[in-house]
Amino acid sequence: MNADGTTDSAARDTGAVRRAHDVFTSGGELSRPPVRELVAASWRRSARARVSPDGAACVELADDDLAAYREEHPLAPAMPVVRELMGAYARDGEHLLAVCDAAGRMLWVEGHPGTLRKARGMNFVAGARWSEAAAGTNAPGTAIAMDRPVQVCAAEHFRRRVQAWTCAAAPVHDPHTGRLLGAVDITGGDGLSHPHSLAFVQAVARAAEAHLALQAPPAPGGRPRLTALGRDEALLRIDSRSVRLSRRHSEILVVLAHRPEGVSGDELLVQLYEDESVTPVTLRAELSRLRALLGPEVLRSRPYRLASPVDADFAAVDRRLASGAVSAALGAYAGPLLPGSRAPGIVRLRERLADRLRAALVDRADPGLLADWAYSAWGEDDVELWRALADAVPAVQRPPVLARLRALDAELSAGATGLQRPGPQTRR
Q1: Are 129 and 105 within 8 A, CB to CB?
Q2: Number of domains the chain contains
Q3: How far, in Å, CA of 359 to CA of 373, rounded?
Q4: What element of type H or E holds 185?
Q5: What is the strand order of the sheet 235-238 is part of?
Q6: Residue-wise pLDDT tens for the chain (428 aa)?
Q7: How far apart are CA 147 and CA 410, in angstroms?
Q8: CA 388 to chain centre
Q9: Closest to 367 (Cα-Cα) out of 386, 352, 350
Q10: CATH of the domain at 275
Q11: Per the domain annotation, does 128 fall within a domain?
Q12: Which helix (H) or strand (E) holds 71?
């Protein structure tokens, strides 16, 4: 073990990873080993998002705008706990503690003064966007992209100016709805490459979630809460219970939450199944299993309906859009509604909600809101939004946006050419 906490083999691995990175960024070839699969997948996503390996993160919020955004953010109440657990460790170890939002925008970056000065050279500062789609492979951005704890060491970073650093990050969720709120991160030198660093940030993230749960406990006997945005298996919270639903049960609950007046069996069959040969017996069996899971007091029949109103996250986004609260609507939008579902009724609801939100963002023309959508997993290929973002951002932030837009246009042109030119298998 070296003085900095690394080993000679780790140092050799770093050199091998750096060489693999140079090969990948120059020609697109990627060999494993020495690159971990998690890192290799992130590099591919970074390249697909047209992140420049020699670029730098963009600072999007500063001064009063940053202060106001931080004050209102759901993670703000957890910061005393994060500072208590990480503050002294960061200062004494010459590290940084950082907390970002669900879009990868840094909210707080604190720690050792000398390390803070060095970090400014790569724009690792509050207000800068470090999502994976904007800044390439890095612990907080990749932790958000994958919704899991991540450690990124030295040359594993996609951008070269970040390869002198090592970081570990873990996502933080709303303890009541499961919605991703952001991530906590520890960033510093090679000493953080130890697995203990990852375990440490995981523990801090869990402590932050526990603190948020105590700050705003759910009201006993309150309405059930349905979380279905950005996840294929919805989460239903009833009183003190939390039930993770199967995909089919998720679809049923979403349809019934959207139609509180109830639906007939025939209508529910049409909403749920693409295959017209599916019989009412199949649907009744699914509903019977769902009733056994939730209890007879939750699900009623003739017509099929929920016994009491449900607070659904997709309905909350809809209400905020209707009231003109576009920023709040985007903040509550954790992703497409049951993204893997092909149920006709779910597909219509999903597309309607996404189209309404996209139209509101384009109409508002706020660069920060447009960037939140464009750099998300569901917005990375949205040409219309990228064009709106290019028109809205200040000139200094425009080059990476225009580069991404050119890449999307090229992909569309190539796709159109491919459609016009049938391949060998389609020729007669």
Answers
A1: yes
A2: 3
A3: 12
A4: strand 180-188
A5: 241-244, 235-238, 225-227, 311-312
A6: 333 333 334 444 888 999 999 999 998 788 777 899 999 999 999 998 889 999 999 998 888 889 999 998 999 999 999 999 999 999 999 999 999 999 999 999 999 999 999 999 999 999 999 999 999 999 999 999 999 999 999 999 999 999 999 999 999 998 888 889 999 999 999 889 888 999 999 999 999 999 998 886 655 556 889 999 999 999 998 877 889 999 999 999 999 999 988 888 889 989 998 877 778 888 889 889 998 888 877 888 888 888 888 999 999 999 999 999 898 899 899 999 999 999 999 999 999 999 999 999 999 999 989 999 999 989 989 999 999 999 999 888 898 899 889 989 888 887 766 655 444 343 32
A7: 30
A8: 21
A9: 386
A10: 1.10.10.10
A11: yes
A12: helix 63-72
CATH of residue 82's domain is: 3.30.450.40
Domain span at residue 408 reads 313-420
Check if the beta carbon of residue 175 is closer than 8 Å to that of residue 235.
no
Which residue type does 365 have?
A: A
Distance CA 233, CA 249 (A): 8
307 with 275, same domain: the answer is yes
Nearest in space to 378 (alpha carbons), one of 337, 410, 348, 327: 337
Q: Cβ distance 94 to 11 under 8 Å? A: no
